[in-house]
Design goal:
With 321 residues, the protein is α/β, with parallel strands linked by helices. 43% of the residues lie in helices and 16% in strands. It contains 13 helices and 10 strands. The strands form 2 sheets. It has a 6-stranded mixed beta sheet, sandwiched between helices. Strands 5-4-3-6 form a 4-stranded parallel beta sheet, sandwiched between helices. Strand 3 (71-75), helix 4 and strand 4 (94-100) form a beta-alpha-beta unit. Helix 8 crosses helix 10. The mean pLDDT is 94.
């Protein structure tokens, strides 16, 4: 079965978003290298516009809409919501975003700040509410946060850039929720170097991708998972799952405690304000599983720091004090 996107799609997306999306830096840390036992190269999507990689996919998708579309609708807990709101404003379109009530306050405020209309709903209601908004809004369309080929290709430009910025990577660790980012990164990276390893990083409390990979079939979550990594609470989609199945070599899950530890280490040692979803990839990079997997064969490893939209009133290592 043909996959939803190709390297050519990612390369076309890179041209399409050039001039608006930021070429984000890659940073290193001798402390993190020492803790992991390998060279780590952190792709800092926290410095992307609106603070996360999601802007890439949103802009790539919006720039391919039919001219009749005047309103873009989506549902998201935060980063995709902000991305659609910002990309729509750049394109001269209106955005209407459905957000669950447990979305971080900083992300809700940012979406409104970009000029979008926001409708709040229960955590399990957002798909139905977004569909109703689309039915009630003329000249509108819905752009999902991950299960959309144009979004996947746009997210893949993160990996395309990393491959151009750092030579001879042995692996890339990518946070994994709905699968849009890892699908795009895997397509780009393996299109350039088929031998590179792609490792998914997933919260143990939202482990549908790990279970799907083990079973050889997509097994969506049947509940809203309880994880601090709010950007990774969604299940793999019908378009992202085949890419994950074909191109992702391993999926590693980490506990909530490991996520917080990884996040805090980056704040303290690298002085980078990352959100919990980015901490998932850090936790995998520092954990024992990566050593068990390939021993000393993974010497140069990229880590996608997917975003930095942390609610500063809810910093996890302070919230219980």
């Amino acid at each position: 079965m043909a996959l939803a996107i190709s390297l050519a799609d990612v390369e076309a997306a890179a041209e399409r978003i050039k001039g608006e999306a930021t070429l984000t830096p890659v940073m290193t840390s001798r402390t993190m290298d020492s803790l992991s036992g390998r060279e780590l190269y952190f792709k800092c999507e926290l410095f992307q516009r609106m603070g996360a990689f999601k802007f890439r996919g949103a802009l790539n998708a919006i720039r391919q809409l039919d001219a009749s579309i005047k309103t873009v609708i989506t549902h998201s807990s935060g980063n995709h919501a902000q991305a659609i709101a910002l990309a729509a404003s750049i394109a001269g379109l209106h955005a209407h975003v459905v957000m669950p009530v447990d979305s971080p306050g900083c992300k809700v405020a940012a979406v409104k700040g970009y000029g979008a209309t926001v409708t709040m709903c229960g955590p399990s209601e957002r798909i139905d509410v977004a569909a109703r908004v689309e039915r009630d809004t003329p000249n509108s369309c819905q752009i999902g946060s991950y299960n959309h080929a144009h979004v996947m290709a746009g997210q893949g430009t993160t990996g395309l850039e990393l491959m151009q910025q750092v030579a001879d990577l042995d692996a890339i660790i990518v946070p994994l929720g709905g699968g849009g980012l890892i699908s795009g990164v895997a397509t780009a990276a393996k299109g350039i170097n088929p031998r590179i390893k792609i490792i998914g990083a997933e919260p143990a409390n939202a482990d549908d991708a790990a279970r799907s990979k083990a079973a050889g079939e997509r097994i969506p979550l049947d509940h809203v998972p309880d994880t601090i990594a709010d950007g990774l609470r969604t299940s793999l989609g019908t378009l992202t799952w085949p890419v994950v199945d074909a191109l992702v070599d391993e999926i590693v899950t980490v506990s909530e405690e490991e996520i917080v530890t990884g996040m805090r280490l980056v704040w303290e040692r690298m002085k980078l304000v990352i959100e919990p979803s980015a901490g998932v990839g850090v936790a995998v990079a520092l954990g024992p599983r990566i050593k068990e997997m390939c021993g000393g064969n993974l010497k140069r490893v990229g880590v996608i720091l997917c975003g930095g939209n942390q609610d500063l009133d809810k910093i996890p290592w302070l919230s219980n004090k």
